[in-house]
Amino acid sequence: MHQNEFVFEPLPQPSLPVIGSDKLFPVHRIYCVGRNYADHAIEMGHDPDREPPFFFQKNPDCLLTGGSDFPYPSATKDVHFEMEMVVALGRGGSDIATENALDHIFGYAVGLDMTRRDLQGEAKKLGRPWEVGKAFEASAPCSAVVPATHIGHPAKGAVWLKVNGAERQRGDLDQMIWKVPETISYLSTLFTLQAGDLIYTGTPAGVGAILPGDEMIGGVDGIGEIRVRVV
Length: 231
What we know:
Blueprint: E1 15-17, E2 24-26, E3 30-33, H1 38-43, E4 55-58, E5 63-64, E6 79-81, E7 83-89, E8 105-112, E9 115-116, H2 117-126, H3 131-134, E10 140-141, E11 146-147, H4 148-151, E12 158-163, E13 166-172, H5 180-190, E14 198-200, E15 208-210, E16 215-220, E17 224-229
Parallel strand pairs: 3-14, 5-10
Antiparallel strand pairs: 1-2, 3-4, 6-9, 6-15, 7-8, 7-14, 8-11, 12-13, 12-16, 16-17
């Protein structure tokens, strides 16, 4: 493309660093799986039975990388953390078979699905979309991507989060209602997945509020950790 093809300078491509590489992982879309741990479904007031998965999206420029500070967002008094494993796709497609789904994964990361819970709650009551609660600036803190060639495909391992040194969340990947291959397969029937897509795979119980000055440290055993300060 020629420099003058756009009416203004395009924004930079959202991306994540890759462990063991000087190249970046370019992010296409961010999909998030709702209520994918039974204990979290219960704490949010829902039936933990294996209902079909559902998804919402965050925008790629919602990413917060490199351990940057999380700016407490506007229009809310109840911002919650949700610690999650993140799947980074290296191949896309539609109608991907469950048994082939792992072949589409480039690697894994750990991330926080930050949520304006009060705004999400209002949207739920009114039957409205969740974007105001989920897709605000810096609402998707994420670590560097660890290639699957380094760590394989984790199916178990602790998912945990501490706020100011006190543990608030702890679960295990093997508690997911919809496992990663099933999630990818189902999602690919709804969207044409692309290389560069991220999937936030859901959070265990224990979600709660944070305030400016708090420090969140969380991780998924076998993948990595993330440290985010609220400002």
